[in-house]
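Bumping my old thread because nobody answered last time. Still need a sequence for this structure:
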């Protein structure tokens, strides 16, 4: 549970959420740190801080490619987090809200 809380807390910050969304969109091939900074207009030190936080929580991983550091979303950990939320927060059922009594009466 602590791992899920840490990951959700990391994503609760706007800049980190933007970085993570960009990396999810980039897919498994990921993006160079410089390209992430350019896309999101982030200073290198700011970007580095947020990427390190996302990496500590297991949401992103990095690899060296020549002189570039490539970051990508860790899709296995992302799927574990979604699975945890579905299993523990939704009781293994759909997370869609139940129909209200008012909606049920109107449909009848």
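Sorry it took so long. Here it is:
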């Amino acid at each position: 549970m602590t791992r899920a809380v840490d990951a959700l807390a990391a994503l609760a910050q706007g800049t980190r959420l933007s970085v993570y969304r960009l990396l999810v969109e980039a897919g498994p091939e990921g993006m160079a740190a410089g390209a992430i900074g350019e896309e999101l207009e982030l200073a290198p030190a700011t970007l580095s801080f947020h990427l390190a936080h996302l990496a500590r929580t297991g949401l992103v991983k990095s690899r060296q490619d020549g002189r570039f550091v490539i970051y990508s979303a860790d899709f296995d950990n992302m799927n574990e987090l979604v699975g945890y939320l579905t299993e523990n927060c939704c009781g293994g059922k759909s997370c869609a809200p139940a129909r209200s009594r008012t909606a049920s009466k109107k449909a009848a």
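The chain has six helices and three strands. Let me know if any region looks off to you.
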